[in-house]
Amino acid sequence: MGTLPVLPEPFASWFARRGWTPRPHQLATIAAARAGQSALLIAPTGGGKTLAGFLASLIDLAAAPRAGLHTLYVSPLKALATDIARNLLAPVDEMGLAIAVETRTGDTPANRRKRQKEQPPHILLTTPESLALLLSQPDAPTMFAGLSTVVIDEVHALAGTKRGDQLALCLARLGALVPGLRRVGLSATVAHRGALLDYVGAGAVPELIEVAERAPPALSILLPDGRLPWSGHMGLNSASAILERIGAHRMTIVFVNTRAQGELLFQALWKINANTLPIALHHGSLDIGQRRKVEAAMSSGQLRAVVATSSLDLGIDWGGVDLVIQVGAPKGVSRLLQRVGRANHRMDEASRAILVPANRFELLECEAVIEGVAAREQDGDPPRPGGLDVLAQHLLLMAAGAPFHPDAMFTEVRRAAPYAGLLRADFDDVLRFVEDGGYALAAYDRYRKLFRDADSLVHIRGERVARMARMNLGTIVEAPLLKVRLAGRGGGALGEVEEGFVNMMTPGDTFMFAGRLLRYVRLRETTVEVAEGGGGEPMVPAYAGSKYPLTSNLAARVRAMLHDPAAWSHYPPPVREWLGLQTERSQLPGTDDLLVETFPRNGRWFLVAYCFEGRNAHQTLGMLLTRRMERFGCGPLGFVATDYVIAVWSAFEPGDVAGLFEQDMLGDDLEAWMAESSMLRRTFRNVAVIAGLIERNHPGQEKNRRQVTVNSDLIYDVLRRHQPDHVLLRATRADAAGGLTDLGRLSGMLGRVAGRVRHVRLSRVSPLAVPVLLDIGRETVRTAGDEDALLAETEALVAEATGDAPSSTAPMRVHPVHRANLAILQRKPRNQRAQPA
Amino acid sequence: MTAAPVHLMGERLLLDPLGGVMWPAAGLLAVADLHLEKGSACAARGQLVPPWDTRATLDRLAALMRRWRPRTVVALGDSFHDARGSLRMAPADAARLRGLTEAAAFIWVLGNHDPAPPEGLGGQAAEVWAAGPLVFRHQAKRGAEGELCGHHHPKASIATRAGAVTRPCFVADARRLMLPALGAYTGGLDVAHPAIAGLFPRGGRAFLLGQDRLFSFTLAQAAVSARPQVRPPPRAADA
Q1: Which residues of chain A are in CATH 3.40.50.300 domains?
Q2: Complex ipTM value
Q3: Which CATH class is domain A11-210?
Q4: What are A356-377's pLDDT values in tens digits?
Q5: Is A443's Cβ below 8 Å from some Cβ in B?
Q6: Which of B51, B208, B230 faces A439 most closely, judged by CB atoms?
Q7: Which residue from B232, B54, B210, B50 is spatially nearest to A684, judged by alpha carbons?
């Protein structure tokens, strides 16, 4: 960047009045704007990043006032848009500028939306979904005609997600509507700068403006009172130590990894909170009103601590937070830095954070993350290619706005970075899917949603189809959720739980939710009615897909630390002893090989592999290993995967261990398993909903919904049998390969350790293997065949328990979870007639 | 494949894991709720679901008929998803169905979705079909004995150590046998729902369909939880 410009009036005086000096990156952003250049601004939180994004627009509007939309701001969070609007209004008012700033989100009332179209504000703050909706309207070209700048906030959180795909497509559309449109991306520090530059640039190369990291955060590790557990992820026995730290600070955010952990830790803290420090709970399943209340209490300084999940990772700046505590494994350097950045939102001060490991492996992970932060290493996967399901939704929405030519649309779509590598064949398949389903059997010609005219222009088939497309807009698909509400008239909404959790409960059962102990009263339609209080051991709702896997970089560090006894000196004694014992009884995992232990235990053989590739990759490996062991005649009985290791148990001793880990396991076995797995079905459901095959909303048809919708599992089965290469199945496989199965990491690992499998045959369990054995019984990934086995097992157990069958003489270890289920099964049905109507 | 025997009014019936029931003594096979052409009915409303549901359902029916070689087949109503369903059928599917209705005496019991018999597809229609001590009806009649019925598409959830497993199922007591829906796109109603549970006031058994066999549980075991009866649609997140 050449010489930086000088801030014009009245901005210079306004900065001076506040005692501020414009920061170099703010001036650089203004310079880029003057040159008509797009820009990506990478800066840590608290650097005046947002103001930098808007300064050029404010200056432009102050110098040359004009009517119409000038700047569009897109943020992943609705709350952030509202907050930014407030923050922008302050300088606008104080400088007496005639600049209209408004928000437009799902909450904006209809009359305001209408007015915003007739008389757009100068600056409009919105979300990717609301932008997509605006672009699907026939009047979009008029509305955006004078647009000068788009500001995209938190780009790092959007790029690589389906919402990010949708936004990228919308930005490409905007670029086509408004040639010369400038984009400004705002991002936290990331590992993949190039990918973000592409994302913001969309064809052109934006200027990169980067702010040096502030002082590295001060990180420390807090160990629980007493012993450090072998296993478990909740960190509850650190509650008193955490409470002590909360008491010593103004305001603390206690970050946890799952909503269930949040509920449990919140309860544990309040149980010992003798001084009744105001501590609140915040997670994504809580009612939105409750969450806003907590956030407001934080802003006004009424709280001393908030126990939060990733729901507070992004967003509004709370100046008062002076401590961040991360309970449980941090999982990745970038993720931890994002969280730590929530404290001391000021550039010149170091943030302080305390890491609280919940078990021994997590202690190693915490040590590794501290090393990673010191080395200024970022991690995380590079963004994957854009989803074809998102493209399908986009094409239908764009057709709802105006007819388009496929060639022009293809060119436009390829300008969006996630779709830069899109093949024409895939584009055509997606378009055909949107038109008439894209089935090999041309059965639906008369029901097509799009048609082509003589000039090959693609039109939507009428306003009803357009309306349905808009009603089903969006790329976030949630599992079927049930509302939780206090019973009685005017009972307040508390939030939502997954349907599967409610399935396991009987009226009278107690559970923890929203930081309260609740008693399940009954289910009414889609609302769970509850009452406060109750006895017995409460359950805690868990939510699918809420676990992040350990990143590869962090895994590599943990591996290196394990292998280097010199590094152990500052670990607490129990951990040093644990690792020391491992070297005596077995061996330590190496940095570039694969340690596999086998040992007999309780009449079975156990195989434990120290892969360190994260839970998702290990789940996949577990499925593949058990298939292969089946073929090798080892009689595999089950497996369990953690972030660090995979353990498989079998009836017979696994012989050729190196042969088990050969790379060719990623062939047919993988295909066969993937197709049957519940994971792929779940993935297909999301793809089908986003692509518009399954409607979320249908105008005026709530009542007969059951008759007009088809369960996605049934569709999947039929489609897989009759058109296995259908574009939605391809999209499903692509999603599954990247996400839940983590195939990339798995195949990378198998390639790396080929010829370097170190097999250690032991006479008993090794110290390092103890934690994973304690996790047995918690596996959840399954296929139709596994479900049959589960049903058979349950049938046999019930028969035995109720005396219908002679008791089994085979030694059988019943997992506590199963024992609880068995207790439920044998329970006398209460209130059986009180089923909901 | 292992069929599960049950007894109804002294008659021995075999439940097939594909979802049909065979009465060997009478050479009779019964199936329920085929909902043929549900896919095209959805398409007409704008949901372009894969169009092979009719073919997939006929595959199941044909497999059942091959396995049991029945002299009589009784389809317990809602064989078509709607009254005009048979008119939308692809010619190849229609020809195949005609082949099946010619291979045995084929009885179309009429249902609420298809109150009139399908045209040009063979077979004969009946409001109710009776044979020996058994009566075949679409929708159960309270107090009936020796009744085979469909209509409700029963399914059951069983809590296992790795979460609940949900499957379509038969429901049986000493007087009545309710069949699962055979249609490829048919959903289900939980056996705990009063509409089903109320028909089995003294309890009964649910036989869950497996890949090669059935899994049997008492209704009380399958009804431990008050399950949601309406699956909320997947929703757009508020953004």
Answers
A1: 11-210, 218-374
A2: 0.86
A3: alpha beta
A4: 998 888 898 999 999 888 888 8
A5: yes
A6: B51
A7: B50
